[in-house]
Amino acid sequence: MSIRRLPETLVNRIAAGEVVERPAAALKELVENAIDARATRISVRIVEGGISRLEVEDDGCGMTPSDMALALERHATSKLPDDAIEDVTTLGFRGEALPSIASVARLTLESRVAGGDGWKRVVDNGALAAEGPAALAKGTRVLVEDLFARVPARRKFLRSGRSEYAACLDVVRRLAMARPDIAFVVEHDGRRVLDVQGGQDRLARVAALTQRELAANSIGVDLDRGEVHLGGVISLPTYNRGIADHQYLFVNGRPVKDRLLVGALRGAYADLLARDRHPVVALFLDVPTSEVDVNVHPAKTEVRFRDPQLVRGMIVGGLRRALDEHGFRSVQRPAEAALAAWQQEPVPPPEPATGFLFGRRTEPAVHLFGTDTPPANEAVARVYDRLVPFASASAPLAGRAEVAEMAPPEADEHPLGIARGQIAKTYIVAEAEDGLVIVDQHAAHERLVLEQLRRGMSGQAVPSQGLLLPEVVELDEPACDRLEAAAPQLAALGVELERFGPAAVMVRATPAMLGAIDCHKLVTDIADDLAGYDAALGLSEKLELVAATMACHGSVRAGRTLNVAEMNALLRQMEVTPHSGQCNHGRPTWVKLQMADVERLFGRK
Fold first, then answer.
1. Which DSSP category does 389 fall into?
2. Rounded to an integer, what distance in angstroms lies between the CA atom of residue 308 and that of residue 296?
3. Which of 344, 350, 343, 342 is nearest to 386 (CA)?
4. How far is it, in rounded angstroms, from Cα 284 to Cα 551?
5. Read out DSSP for 490-502?
6. What is the Cα–Cα distance from 142 to 71, expressed in whole angstroms?
7. How far apart are CA 459 and CA 532, in angstroms?
8. Could you report the per-residue pLDDT of 30-57, keeping only the tens digit for each?
9. Which residues lie across from 219 on neighbouring strands?
10. Helix or strand (DSSP H, E) at 472
11. CA dist 496 → 499, 525, 553 (Å)
12. pLDDT the model gives residue 401
């Protein structure tokens, strides 16, 4: 078969397959064009998820009729004044978007420059259908109708209107987050779904486009390293999601979904979240244009860094430092659903008291210390004559009490307050200056033990407790090989073992902080961890995961009764230990019920 030159219409359709795979991709290109045109307000209208109709209107610089004709040709753009593509600062630069969209839909382009007349061009699936004057204010309006209507092979792969709408909204949300100086309005099927004003600062825009709770459960990031700047907000580890759709990453104001950045983000939260949980973040990375290549993906959603290790180290180190500085912080308050679950005792409304105040009482009085009995008809008994049965002195108590201590000191000194008791042998109840703190003793102590083990891995050896009689643990030979290879590093964690034949190891010491533990189970779990994790992980990374397993073995278990001194000691340790606000799986170790919430439960507010 001989080689032939493809016709322009077919070339445009092939390009559309790379750039416009769904309505959200077309919308992204149109909104980026509006941003590059220096618009201050962008309006988006979506019908049926963008499958039937997409409209983007802006108040940017506009185009002349001759520029409009060029804009609909491939590889024609105003964003590259010279050949230095590596210095591009605009979102778009390829010159493919408009002709690609026009080749697979009906596209109406209207534009007007300041002081000029409006003009309109209509292109129907690659063919010019009409052109002429148009009435509009300065700026540009682009209408896309019936996307892929004449390309059934592509149309059948589109999802439902609701799914396509969700993708369109996500695209606009990310672009709006990158440009807080621009106002954005989005309407879907005639209903306004997003409206943010221009001129906001970055943090205010992030808060407006994400969950309201993020503001109270987030940490600010601001880090400079040479000419590279990293800023934004990250959630506390205890404020997480089951999917990674709330991770917003930007490079020089460009929304990206880059594997390097996602991997660095996962590394920063490595031992703070379970593997199936994801943080909520909005990170903005600004680097010199010469240090990043944005021309590596047709949709410009991926970038390539000249020094990827610098970027990864900056993200991991910067985020870890920000999380470390906030120490024991956790999600600040229980969810509204949890507060609503508290039961309030219903109180019957008071009955008219005329017989009591001005006349003879119709029921016998009930005295606290007398011999009178309550009225026979208990159903109509009022609040003041209701007797409460008390348990006898010999009855078993449901809880226990300790001698009261002094009032809690200033919250600045002890933010987690003073322990007042224990519930279900699992939760510590503490009184702080501004509310009630409830601590999960097992989860909290598990994090404290892990942080101690991590310090051992960084050079501060963990104290070990020698066994009176060394214990032999039998395992298969590959497991013994892995343990023998990791023996020096395990010794830094307080686990001293040596090979004892081809299929066994001898344990001579365990970490003193773990107390009396089952050596066989501990060593078996460590061997499983060394074998089970990704082979691409280095030994040090595997030992981080091993340390988490060891911490679970040595932590204070739920169901153990603690005295007040032990509870207070745990609270004080939490206040000075990094990441103590969440356990090794990302769940909160403590929650606070503010005094305002307590008063609301009792109807005082």
1. -
2. 15
3. 350
4. 35
5. HHHTT-EEEE-ST
6. 12
7. 26
8. 999 999 999 999 999 999 999 999 999 9
9. 234
10. strand 464-474
11. 11, 15, 16
12. 47
Burial of 17 (0-12, 13-18, 19+ CB in 10 A): middle
Spatial distance between the Cα atoms of 153 and 173, rounded to a whole number of angstroms: 30
Report CA Rg, the chain: 33
Residue with tokens 């533990």: 517
Closest CA to 543 of 486, 481, 496: 486
Count the helix, strand and coil residues of the chain and give each as a percent rounded to the nearest 5.
Answer: 35, 25, 40
CB contact at 8 A, 599 and 347: no
Give the integer Cα–Cα distance in Å for 430 and 421.
Answer: 7
For residue 583, the SS3 value is coil
Other Cβ atoms less than 10 A from the Cβ of 145: the count is 16
Cβ atoms 167, 257 nearer than 8 A? no
* Segment 328-383, tens digit of pLDDT: 665 555 555 555 555 554 545 555 544 444 444 444 444 434 444 444 444 433 33
The mean pLDDT value for 296-318 works out to 83
Cα distance between residue 369 and residue 380, in whole Å: 23
Tokens 């911490």 locate to: 551
| CA dist list (Å): 11 to 33, 178, 409 | 22, 32, 74
550, 493 in Cβ contact below 8 A?
Answer: yes
**Which of 137, 138, 132, 136 is closest to 119 using CA atoms?**
132
Q: Structure tokens of 227?
A: 């000419």
How far does Cα 400 stand from its chain's mean position? Answer: 39
Distance of CA 603 to the CA centre of its chain: 34
- Cα(453)–Cα(461) distance, rounded to whole angstroms? 8
Tokens read off for 558: 């739920």
CA distance 44 to 141: 10
Reference 416, options 324, 328, 323, 325; nearest CA is 328
Sequence length of the chain is: 605
Task: Give the distance between the most distant pair of CA atoms in the chain.
Answer: 116
For residue 538, what are the CA distances in angstroms to 530, 543, 547, 585? Answer: 10, 9, 14, 21
- What order of strands is seen across the sheet that includes strand 183-188? 127-133, 119-124, 106-112, 139-145, 53-58, 41-47, 183-188, 191-196
Of the candidates 213, 207, 222, 324, the residue with the CA atom closest to the CA atom of residue 272: 324
Q: Are strands 590-594 and 435-440 parallel, antiparallel or unpaired?
A: antiparallel
Distances (CA, A) of 377 to 43, 361, 374: 70, 15, 9
Q: Evaluate whether 292 touches 251 at the Cβ level (below 8 Å).
A: yes
Q: Structure tokens of 497?
A: 């073992």
